[in-house]
C-alpha cells in the first residue's frame, strides 16, 4: 500500500501543478514588432488576452513610442500630456484588469495614417485548466494500480 499511496500522492501533485494558471507573454506584432504599416487588428484577432498576461512592445525608440489611450482617443488618434507614454523601445505591459485596452504610437501620424494602433479585450484570468491529457492518463493509470493493489484486500 505504501508505494500505491506514494503514487497517488504523486498523481495528485501532478494534477495540482498542471492546474497552476499559466500567464502568457505576447510580443505585439510578433517578429515585426511595433512599427508602421502592420495590421495590429489582424494580429490581435483570435488571440485571447487574460489578466496576468504581458504585452511586449519592441520598437526603435527613436521612431516610435507607446501611448496608453482610451476608446475615444483611440478612434481619433488624439491624446494629451496626461496619457501615459512608454518609450524604452522594449516595453512590457502586464494586463491587470479585464476590459478593453487601447495603445497607439504617439509619433507623427503613425496612429492615424500608419496603423500603429492596437485594441485588445482582456478577459478574466485563466481558469484552472482541466488536467492535461498526460496528467489525466497518469491519474487514470494510478487509479488502475490502486485498484489492482487494493482489490486483493477485499478478495
Ligand atoms: Cu510610430
TrEMBL record:
The keyword Membrane belongs to this UniProt entry's keyword annotation: yes
CDD domains: Phytocyanin
Topology versus the membrane: Single-pass type I membrane protein
Keywords: Copper, Disulfide bond, Electron transport, Glycoprotein, Membrane, Metal-binding, Signal, Transmembrane, Transmembrane helix, Transport
Signal sequence residues: 1-23
Entry's Gene Ontology cellular component terms: plasma membrane
Keyword Oxidoreductase: no
Pfam families assigned to the protein according to its UniProt record, in alphabetical order: Cu_bind_like
Gene3D superfamilies for this protein: Cupredoxins - blue copper proteins
Gene Ontology terms: biological process: response to symbiotic fungus
Annotated transmembrane regions: 135-154
InterPro entries: Cupredoxin (IPR008972), Phytocyanin-like (IPR039391), Phytocyanin_dom (IPR003245)
Domain Phytocyanin: 24-124
Example of a GO MF term: metal ion binding
Location relative to the cell: Membrane
PANTHER family linked: BLUE COPPER PROTEIN, BLUE COPPER PROTEIN 1B
Protein name in UniProt: Phytocyanin domain-containing protein
Organism of origin: Glycine max
Amino acid at each position: 500500500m505504501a508505494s500505491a499511496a506514494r503514487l497517488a500522492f504523486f498523481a495528485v501533485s501532478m494534477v495540482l501543478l498542471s492546474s497552476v494558471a499559466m500567464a502568457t507573454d505576447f510580443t505585439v506584432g510578433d517578429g515585426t514588432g511595433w512599427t508602421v504599416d502592420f495590421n495590429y487588428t489582424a494580429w490581435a484577432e483570435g488571440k485571447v488576452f487574460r489578466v496576468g498576461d504581458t504585452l511586449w512592445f519592441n520598437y526603435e525608440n527613436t521612431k516610435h513610442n507607446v501611448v496608453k489611450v482610451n476608446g475615444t482617443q483611440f478612434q481619433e488618434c488624439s491624446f494629451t500630456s496626461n496619457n501615459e507614454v512608454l518609450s524604452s523601445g522594449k516595453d512590457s505591459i502586464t494586463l491587470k484588469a479585464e476590459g478593453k485596452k487601447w495603445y497607439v504610437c504617439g509619433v507623427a501620424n503613425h496612429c492615424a495614417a500608419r496603423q500603429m494602433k492596437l485594441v485588445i479585450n482582456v478577459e478574466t484570468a485563466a481558469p484552472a485548466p482541466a488536467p492535461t491529457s498526460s496528467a489525466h492518463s497518469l491519474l487514470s493509470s494510478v487509479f488502475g494500480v490502486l485498484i489492482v493493489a487494493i482489490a486483493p484486500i477485499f478478495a
